[in-house]
Write a structure and sequence with these properties.
heterodimer; A: alpha/beta; abc type-2 transporter like fold; B: Rossmann fold; Alpha-Beta Plaits; six-stranded mixed beta sheet; four-stranded antiparallel beta sheet; 10 helices; 33% helix
Chain lengths: 369, 304
């Protein structure tokens, strides 16, 4: 009865806050609708300068092919390599392709020739992907135009590697990241709001009036946790609805798996937030401590960079990171169609975190100095 | 057995000693006042008695329970109104009251008779959020919330600080009515004039009690002559001048007057000396000491 009353009190306070209820709706909508279009690892619009020393019809054809590719913007075609390098230095172009003299002639007579590619590799990803794209475009070009006519004395065995992308067939970065954005939304709301709650009562002094009452620690802490549970699930539902309506993504592995994991995850996270709140004296302190942990949580969770490419010691640390398991579940369910049975390991891990953080949150809340 | 007893309690915050060996006994059904300036240690003592802080040494009993061992029992039996407003500002008057009733496992209806007198005054605003109430109304609401569970002992930490004189007077009337119902009330205040309204007062300074008695007994034991004189324009100058008169122990402002303490001088002797020092003595008269005079006197001399 007391617990019920305290929970009602938390909800009343939450809805009377002029700002928070709006934030809880606006934040997931904004993250789900805007961010997937902005944060994109596909490199497009690489600016290209071609040095055409040949000036033949074949080199012209190659230039047109490069220009037609969606990855490149043909910035300039010049006859001088130093001139093109200057453009690269000045940052007016990202890549230089040099077509040598006798390009057409060599191709026709010997069946082989060389094209030199110079890239600005300051942006490493852009550099590496750019050179791959250029290679691919050139290779396609030669294969299409000259493979039939090229006569080599000894026909080299042809090995073709065909790559088939499982689970995310078009390698769309959005599909990969959308489950992760849902996790980010839940981490931010489910972590920060509880962290600021108890310390807020401390700052306002209201905690003193509650401390003097015979309310049990467990009731007090659970009255704080349960509203964030409800809020987290609402936020998650908004995210899932948007992912389905806007991006056509649905949790193949089962919607209830997502909800079950979310219950566990939000509980662990809110418990952690309350622990920070219990140990903090001011909102400012709670805010910074929480910010620190959430940043580490996110960077070490496999959310942005794969855990498998972290050094071994860092991989071990990620075992202690609750979001890691939640993200594995989200991507598993959304992209691979994992079912609950495939995720028992993650489920147990989160359950462990729940017990640990829940107990700690109750213990660390002291009614007496 | 006293309802509240504190024995040799000491408490320090780091290097600062907030309470230096404090003891007190409060009889059941009495109104006990702890009078002292800011920083005397009143709030720390309250927080020990209400189980919010554990003292460094010494012990405290409330209703026969130890404040450390039987914390939960005490919390059911006492009501505490902290010095700063600590109700939920974003809940309404009504909601605050029923929240505190329910955390004590009771209902507003059950104990309505107890708070009725006070609650009636804020009832017109029951739908208003607590944060939007005026100072006096906030105090009344806080008092209602502190006693909605019919506590045996009520602790009020500076309930009238920052409250206008009319509300202060009303507040003390409410306290006398509560005492009449048999509740034990411990109240702290920096206002000396409120001391005379208590059954027993303890004068407190720098973490120590230096006098505990009924207000009447305290003023009776003043044991010195007290004079008052209407201060002219240059109060500060007059203060120094009068204090310098031979035989005068202290001189301090008291409202729009100056109070002069002397153990040896009679009114006639003081008049003569003041007149020869060039002061207008037409308003000089002997007066009866108040608790404040006693406090100032102790303040000027050493503690007991």
């Amino acid at each position: 009865m007391t617990l019920g009353y305290l929970i009602r009190k938390e909800f009343k306070q939450f809805f009377r806050n002029p700002f928070l209820p709006k934030l809880v709706i606006a934040f997931p909508v904004m993250i789900m609708l805007v961010i997937p279009w902005i944060v994109n690892m596909d490199i497009k619009n690489i600016r290209l300068t071609v040095v055409d020393k040949d000036g033949s019809s074949t080199s012209g054809k190659l230039i047109r092919t490069l220009g037609a590719s969606e990855y490149f913007i043909l910035e300039d075609v010049t006859g001088s390599y130093p001139e093109a390098l200057r453009q690269l230095e000045k940052g007016r172009t990202d890549a230089v392709v040099e077509i040598p003299g006798y390009f057409e002639q060599d191709l026709v007579s010997e069946g082989r020739t060389q094209v030199q590619i110079s890239l600005n590799a300051v942006n490493q990803i852009k550099g590496a992907l750019g050179s791959n794209y250029l290679n691919a475009v050139c290779a396609d070009f030669f294969a299409e135009n000259f493979a039939p006519v090229s006569v080599s004395p000894v026909p080299a065995p042809r090995v073709s590697i065909s790559v088939q992308n499982k689970f995310n067939p078009y390698m769309d970065y959005k599909n990969f990241m959308i489950p992760a954005y849902m996790v980010i939304v839940i981490i931010l709301l489910g972590g920060f709001l509880p962290a600021l709650n108890i310390v807020g009562e401390k700052e306002k002094g209201t905690i003193e009036q509650i401390n003097i009452t015979p309310v049990r620690k467990t009731s007090f802490i659970f009255a704080k946790l349960i509203p964030y549970w409800v809020m987290g699930l609402i936020v998650l539902s908004i995210c899932m609805l948007l992912a389905w309506a806007v991006y056509g993504l649905s949790p193949h592995g089962g919607i209830w798996t997502v909800y079950l994991f979310s219950l566990l995850f939000i509980f662990a996270l809110s418990g952690f937030g309350l622990i920070v709140s219990n140990y903090s004296d001011t909102m400012q302190q709670a805010m910074f401590v929480m910010f620190f942990f959430i940043l580490v949580f996110m960077l070490m969770s496999g959310l942005l960079t794969p855990i498998s490419s972290m050094p071994r010691w860092a991989q071990v640390i990620t075992w202690l990171n609750p979001p890691r398991y939640f993200i594995e579940m989200m991507r598993g369910v959304y992209l691979q169609g994992c079912s609950l049975a495939d995720l028992s390991h993650q489920l147990l891990a989160l359950l462990g975190f729940d017990i640990f953080f829940g107990t700690w949150a109750v213990m660390s809340y002291r009614k007496t100095r | 057995m006293a309802e509240v007893s504190v024995r040799n309690v000491r408490l320090s915050y780091g290097k600062i000693q907030a309470l230096k060996d404090v003891s007190l006994e409060v009889e059941e059904g009495s109104l006990f006042g702890i009078i002292g300036p800011d920083g005397a240690g009143k709030t720390s003592l309250f927080r020990i008695m209400t189980t919010l802080i554990v003292p460094d040494s010494g012990s405290a009993q409330v209703c026969g329970y130890d404040t450390v061992k039987d914390m939960m029992e005490i919390r059911r039996l006492v009501g505490y109104m902290p010095g700063h407003f600590s109700l939920y500002q974003d809940l309404t008057v009504e909601e605050n009251l029923s929240l505190f009733a329910s955390v004590f496992n009771t209902t507003v209806q059950e104990n309505y008779s107890l708070v009725e007198d006070i609650y009636r005054q804020i009832e017109p605003f029951r739908k208003r959020r607590a944060g939007k109430l005026s100072g006096g109304m906030k105090q009344k609401l806080a008092l209602c919330c502190a006693m909605i569970h019919r506590p045996r002992v009520l602790f009020l930490d500076e309930p009238t600080t920052g409250v206008d004189p009319v509300s202060r007077k009303e507040f003390w009337q409410m306290l006398s009515r509560l005492r009449a119902q048999g509740m034990t009330i411990i109240v702290s205040t920096p206002y000396m004039d409120e001391a005379s309204l208590c059954d027993t007062v303890s004068l407190m300074k720098d973490g120590r009690f230096f006098k505990t008695d009924s207000p009447g007994a305290i003023t009776e034991k003043f044991g010195k002559h007290l004079f008052e004189i209407k201060a002219g324009v240059s109060t500060v100058k007059a203060l120094d001048g009068l204090a310098a008169i031979d035989g005068v122990q202290a001189c301090y402002p008291f409202g729009d007057r100056l109070h002069i303490v002397s153990s040896s001088l009679s009114l006639a002797e003081l008049s003569e000396r003041a007149a020869s020092a060039g002061y207008d003595i037409s308003t000089l008269a002997e007066c009866t000491p108040t608790v404040e005079d006693c406090f100032m006197d102790f303040d000027n001399n050493d503690y007991e």
